[in-house]
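Researcher: We plan to redesign the surface later, but first we want a full-length starting point. Tokens attached.
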């Protein structure tokens, strides 16, 4: 059956943010996997797109306009997101566009957080060095989603990223690929 133009429109946008992508084992690997997923997935490598931190708000908002699923892919740094993703959030999720009067652009889309941490699961346990369960660091993400009408999906987290061997990395990549398929729905499969 002939494919319609609508089927080539990206329904998933992966916002990947890593200040040193060339050194990354986890984020870079998942970014490459997303890029292989098909034309319905638009992968945006923020540090490659905006090395000068001068974010093109209109281009970023346009990229999100037709998306059904937005993925934030990054290493956890100081219990949160890398600075360029924070700036992206400040610029792109603008008043009157993402929230406030007339700010409906993101309403009904899904947001999926995919992150890795150097800390192990035990480090995020009750007696661990980080002092709190990892979920305690997520409310700013969840509330940003809620305020803008994004549907919050269960995050995918790889703890102990530095110690992850090839099998663990591959298993995490596979879980990511399954999640991408499940949450975005491959429009080519219609
Ligand atoms: C500046 C900086 C801050 C970091 N902060 C944290 C942190 O708060 N919690 C944590 O568990 N790991 C932290 N890490 C470790 C990273 O999360 C880890 O190196 C990363 O998830 C590995 O993924 P990658 O292979 O994509 O680089 C930090 C690393 C850097 C460079």
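Model: Full-length starting sequence:
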């Amino acid at each position: 059956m002939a494919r319609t133009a609508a089927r080539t429109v990206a329904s998933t946008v992966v916002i990947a943010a890593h200040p040193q992508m060339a050194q990354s084992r986890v984020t870079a690997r998942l970014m490459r996997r997303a890029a292989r997923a098909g034309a319905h997935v638009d992968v945006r490598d923020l540090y490659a797109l905006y090395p000068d931190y001068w974010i093109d708000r209109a281009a970023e908002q346009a990229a999100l306009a037709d998306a059904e699923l937005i993925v934030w892919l990054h290493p956890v740094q100081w219990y949160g997101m890398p600075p360029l993703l924070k700036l992206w959030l400040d610029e792109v999720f603008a008043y009157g566009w993402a929230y406030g009067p007339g700010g409906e652009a993101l309403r009904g889309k899904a947001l999926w957080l995919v992150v890795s941490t150097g800390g192990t699961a035990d480090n995020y346990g009750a007696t661990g060095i980080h002092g709190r369960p990892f979920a305690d660091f997520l409310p700013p993400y969840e509330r940003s989603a809620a305020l803008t009408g994004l549907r919050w999906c269960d995050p995918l987290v790889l703890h102990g990223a530095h110690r992850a061997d090839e099998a663990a990395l591959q298993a995490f990549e596979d879980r990511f690929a399954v999640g991408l398929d499940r949450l975005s729905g491959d429009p080519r499969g219609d």
